[in-house]
Prior knowledge:
The chain is mostly helical. The chain has helices spanning about 20-50, 55-85, 90-125, 130-135, 135-160, 180-185, 190-220, 230-255, 265-285, 290-300; strands spanning about 10, 90, 170. It is built from 10 helices and 3 strands; from the N terminus they run E-H-H-E-H-H-H-E-H-H-H-H-H.
Amino acid sequence: MDSPRNITEFFMLGLSQNAEVQRVLFVLFVVVYLVSVGGNLLIMITVIFSSTLGSPMYFFLAYLSFIDTCYSSCMTPKLIADSMYEGRAISFEGCLAQFFVAHLLAGTEIILLTVMAFDRYVAICKPLHYTTVMTRRLCALLLGLAWLGGFLHSLVQLLLVLQLPFCGPNVINHFICDLYPLLELACTNTYVIGLLVVANSGVICLLNFLMLATSYIVILCSLRSHSAEGRCKALSTCGAHFTVVALFFVPCIFIYMRPSSTLSIDKIVAVFYCILTPMFNPLIYTLRNAEVKNAMKNLWKK
Length: 302
């Protein structure tokens, strides 16, 4: 049941109120958004139309690019528009919609990155069993579980917000609708809800990151029995994946593994994992993966 509220919209302070800075941010985020969407779409098209990228790793990579495209499109266009105009209002329903979709995609990506680490573990540590373990059916099941986990995570976050009464100021000191800035506007004690946020978001991020780190330690230990060429290929693939993991998880852990509060640096950290990370992912995977680069070249020749 919704809590009482007497506000119908929020006003976003954004990253800056300086007109000159806003113009610079407008140009910067337009470029970042175009590179992000273009790079991720290129990876999706390459995986779909390339006959050499049929392994489960690239199946998951294509869906990671799809999620990053949606994640970037969920927030960056609004940020670009806010950099053009002084009015940065967003309706209460629009704020909750952005909030729900962002956490749905972020939660799904967290689980998908863990699934991709499991795929690399099986491929490197159990190579003889790889084709029998990582079947199409299992890949589809793991992908479905990732979306289900992201949905449940986002639903819990949304239900927490719907319990809050908003009866006072409606100015959000941020450029996106997120839980901690919204908690600051609630006219009630939010200590318990803050702890639930840590349990739902922070602990999930931390546990998945620890599982990922453990899996890569196991992989690195198993590489001693591989040939020099095999070690080089495995390190290239795993290095790219762990770089993506670190870029996404470390900022999320910083934001959500602390009590309910907002710091001045939070906006910069949010820019990094909300706006920049979806742009870095395709660059990291293409620059460090010879198979993807060759597939792109062959696709371009066609």
